Amino acid sequence: MDPRDDPRHGDSRFRVRQRRRAANIDGIIAAFAGHPAGFEGFCADMFRSLGYTTEVTPASRDGGYDILLRGRDGVMSIVECKCYAHGATA
């Protein structure tokens, strides 16, 4: 796989395509149905657009969270990302 197409890598072409499809909740679910790890990058991009610094954790042994956020005020937060189809249960 080309590293630029890795769903967890920076501003990959994959995530750019997925963001374009994600105009509503159904689009978000459809965009990431086959690539759930890409949803974490999508969420990180969203937080970056809101002014946060983000770090997506590795796919395994991530300590139970998916994104480490740092706000402009320096406060750190953690995010766990889940993207389920309507009616699905965890």
Written account of the structure:
- The chain has 90 residues and is of the alpha+beta class.
- The protein has one domain.
- It is built from 3 helices and 3 strands, in the order H-H-H-E-E-E.
- A hairpin with a 5-residue loop joins strand 2 and strand 3.
- Helix 1 packs across helix 3.
- It is globular and about 35 Å long.
- The N terminus is likely disordered.
Summarize it.
The protein has 90 residues and is an alpha+beta fold. The chain is built from 3 helices and 3 strands; from the N terminus they run αααβββ.
Radius of gyration: 13 Å
> How does the overall form come out from the CA principal axes?
globular
Tell me the helix content.
25-40%
Helix/sheet category: alpha+beta
Order of helix and strand elements from N to C terminus: HHHEEE
Average per-residue pLDDT, rounded, comes to: 78
Number of domains: 1
End-to-end gap? 29 Å
Strand content: 5-15%
Unreliable parts: 1-10
Largest sheet: 3 strands, antiparallel
Quick one: how many beta strands?
A: 3
Largest sheet, spatial ordering of strands: 1-2-3
Give the SSE layout.
Layout (H helix, E strand, L loop, with lengths): L12 H9 L3 H8 L3 H14 L3 E4 L10 E4 L5 E4 L11
Antiparallel strand pairs: 1-2, 2-3
Helix pairs in contact: 1-3
Keywords:
3-stranded antiparallel beta sheet; alpha+beta; globular; 3 strands; 90 residues
